[in-house]
Amino acid sequence: xxxxxxxxxxxxxxxxxxxxxxxxxxxxxxxxxxxxxxxxxxxxxxxxxxxxxxxxxxxxxxxxxxxxxxxxxxxxxxxxxxxxxxxxxxxxxxxxxxxxxxxxxxxxxxxxxxxxxxxxxxxxxxxxxxxxxxxxxxxxxxxxxxxxxxxxxxxxxxxxxx
Length: 162
Prior knowledge:
Elements: H1 7-19, E1 26-27, E2 31-34, E3 44-52, E4 54-62, H2 64-75, H3 84-107, E5 113-115, E6 119-122, E7 135-142, E8 148-156, H4 157-161
Antiparallel strand pairs: 1-7, 2-7, 3-4, 3-5, 3-6, 4-8, 7-8
Helix pairs in contact: 1-3, 2-3
């Protein structure tokens, strides 16, 4: 995976926080991780698959407090509970980020990317492997709503031709 492919996803996170959450997300140091376990992941994670020109996955992982703060900001509520509303909202957040990144790739003249339906995982003991032994680019973020992590992995048709 080319590191420059991560930029549309980072930009999409920035746009989501500034436009929909009236907040500012700042990224930490970008790193590479083996995503065979849940180390470094939080209480709730939204995942969405990518297919077409690029095949892979994007995952946004949040501590419970950050997820609830995001939902409260989006919905104008004052909840403190991790419930189905939080799960639904996190699914929508990962969908928004992936959709915005997809639009950025298209604007760069690349072939279209298709998105799967989002999946939400709650809990702390799980592993995500896509495809097996994948290397994921990990980007930690911080905001006034709390910290979170984004992971992205994919391969493109272009990489296969090189």
